[in-house]
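Tutorial handout. Part one gives the primary structure; part two gives the three-dimensional structure as tokens.
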Amino acid sequence: MTLPRLLVVEEYNSLQQARDSIALGYRRVSTAVESLSLTFGRADGDTGYSAACALLKGRGCPAYHSQEPIPSGALPRGNKSCILDCNHVGTCVATAGFCQCPMGWTGDGCHIRLRRPCTNKPRSWGLEQIDPGPENLTAYRPPNNPFWSSKAAMCSGACDKDMGMCYCPSHTLFGHIPAGEGSLPGKYDEENQPINFGMTERDWLYGAKGWCMAEEPEHRCSCFKDGIGGPLCNIPTEQTCPNQCNGHGECQQGYCKCQDGWFGQDCAYRVQGVPDSPGTLACMLGAWRTLMHSRMENSTRPWIKQFVHTPAAREPGARGPRLRPLIWVYELPTDYSSLMLQYRVERDHCVTRTFSDDNSTVEAVRVYQLEMGLHEMMLQSSHRTLDPEEADFFYVPLYTACYIQPVVTWGDGPFYYGPIPGRTIQATGFMEEAYHQLRSRYPYWDRKGGRDHIIYVPHDEASCYVPKALRSAIILSHWGRQDSNHTSWTGHAPDNYSVEAHDPLWLPKGHLHRINRGPCFDAEKGELRDLVLPDLHNSHFHAHSPLMGNPTVHRKWLALFKGRLQVNVGGFLSGRETKGPHRMKNLPYSQGVRQKIALVSREEDWLNNHGILYGDHEAFDGLPSYSQLMSESTFCLAIIGDGYTSRYEDAITHGCIPVVIMDNVSPTLGTIINEADISVRVAFKDVERLPQILKAIPRDEIERLQRNIGRVWRRFLWSSYPLTGPLLQAQLDANLARFNGTEDPSLLPARDTAHDMSQGDAFQTLMEWLYGRMDP
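Part two.
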């Protein structure tokens, strides 16, 4: 019997409760967080927290660690019903009485089909459906509409209209298997008609040994969709959801379909009368079990246990005392969170982890993966409360970066509110719509005008295009630009938020009136109102850092920069011959600063004359890893790109002194840690004198900065996060044991000693800062 390589989504639509449920238990690192958080810093005495709060500004840190724990309150129970019982496809939020629908469905009762058609031509008006067919395929001509020409969901096979993904046609032997990344099926369709897009030869897909036809195809496509793996896309794998649905639901590409009696974005809530239980890591049943046989039949999915942790959902007696702030995570329609995860198509986009063919965990390496990471940390934190009436703050989960890339780039829509060019313009509408949803469903925004609400907006310049409607909230971002009357600094046209856009139906007043004309990052709208956060890296990023237990080595390079330059098509390294002419291009990118330094550093041979490594990624081929080079450099340049750059925190976590080259931009955690205590700032106009400026810094000042970095570097890591924390802890412990006694005490910053990585990290820093903003 021949099995299809990939089952239709509906064929593996549910995970049923296993016959023998098992207790989840708690991760060692999470238990440590809860127990140590009540006593952290007590070594300095009952009232002093100098070591824990070193170099931090404001009252947040000492006040947080000196607070008295509060008892746990009763859990809220849902007793409201939903229209049509959410059509048995969605989950009823029984505390508010509305449905959270999966992709493919919308409406108050999840009773209206929500289609996301594959893209065969750019849509220039209305909301008409675009179905596969010769009339649409031949109409697609990118030169006629270059702005929307970069669409990956083009399809002439079978389109899954729930998510906008292309499959092999159903009449082929292996119909409904992915037709390849980008879904570009070839120059000719299966009826041998010409197509105006496509890079794959027709025979690769439809020939005798083609991907859609052969038992052992000669050419293979990638299995990039979440939930499938193997060389032939025939191995089912675990899918990724925040908090893995609390062990009380099935994960469907980011959406939690909760078990009966449980509800919420991560199935943390219970309806009236449902008893508490640790969760059931249900077996994979039905069609998936047919495929898996002995491999999965009796499994209880131990691979998700590390990622299921919801202290807020436990009964008061099991939770124990809590520390403030208490944070309620909004329950909203799925449009702004899990729907984006379902629409992401490629498994490693928008998430912090995926599962391999054997369901082992794979860390993601994408920029802005903190979007899911911070959401998950909020869900799993002991600071979370399920009762909004006792909350100090309200976290609004918005997946704007995921919407920008890949969702709205993949296919046509969803649009906010019409097919108007510009990813960031669409993102502004996305956030504005979420604002109207939360205000219409809950009373909490109006109580304090949003001042106790928290939104996190990643992406290059995201803090600049937050709509005015949300400006009163606490805005967490990576971009601390502070000048007023700002315009976009991006070199990527679709992300230019300063371009005006009009539409008689969707934007009759235009786009620009919706966004704030004051600073993107405003530390003055109240006491430390907004905060710039570090990004989330995978655990391997800091492999050679002396602060991760490696010996501190002699820093032989004066300064280092590795990144995009946009000077020429070839590699570029100061002082090294490379191919091609060296010329400026895409001047808006980095405000021309990276390009200017590239040309000057080559002309003046900074590499040989000053020991400055400066180049693009290609130029570093054959050299040590980025982590090792940062560990061998005294200064590391943090230069703007299309906006945000992670190089400030990259430097700090390697003991390298950041050189901030970002005029009018507050660096990461700059409102908590004085940047002059851990970094150097150079203005745009002075970058040509960079070697002279750095060489003029006295040795004792360099050592002061290095010592200070050694005191605060953990604040720039998300090391209490259950994904990265245990891996970072294992690295630190192994390095300390491996290199014991080999360190040179004269080198700075000193090699760190053994400590609990779950303490004093970026998440705890955020909690301390929020506590400091509460009324005394």
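Part three, for discussion. The first strand starts at residue 91 and ends at 93. The CA atoms of residues 416 and 429 lie 5 Å apart.
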